[in-house]
Request: fold
Amino acid sequence: MAMAVNLDRGQETFDYELYDTVTLATGTNRFFGNTEASQGSAITNMQQPNLLPVGQIFRIHEIAFAGDSDISLASAKALIKNTVLKLFINNKQYFTALCFRLPAGGGLYGSDSAGALAVNGNPSAVSTYRFKRVLVIDSSTPFYVEVIADAGANTLRGRVILRGLLTRPVG
Reply:
């Protein structure tokens, strides 16, 4: 369990994950535009689209992309082979990766009735891409992730998870 650190400036900092889920369509799919109030906490934990609440700062240390855990072998292969992920902060691109280069991040795998399996590394919650340099967003800076998918990924649910440290006002 993560412990909050009081910085004696009326703030606390602790481990946190920002996440959002989107049903993929062919083309560009934008993440972090949903809100918890409209979609529920199983879909996202964003309070407002593409922004942190006032006074918060998030330091991004890791990123993960996961798909539904019960998808077909063909869908898993399409998602792994033909998908690109891009991270934007203040409308500037800071990260791009072919999804087959990302660790599984908690569940990008599929199988068929014969037991054939397609995985993108170890489908574990700790299998994430770790940035060599921390990326920082604050409450005035819009951010989003785009996942560009081909037709084979249609109707699959994708989830992007940003892990790092959240600093927020105390009180």
About this structure: Residues 89 and 143 are 4 Å apart (CA to CA). Residues 73-81 form the longest helix (9 residues). The mean pLDDT is 83. The two ends are 21 Å apart (CA to CA).
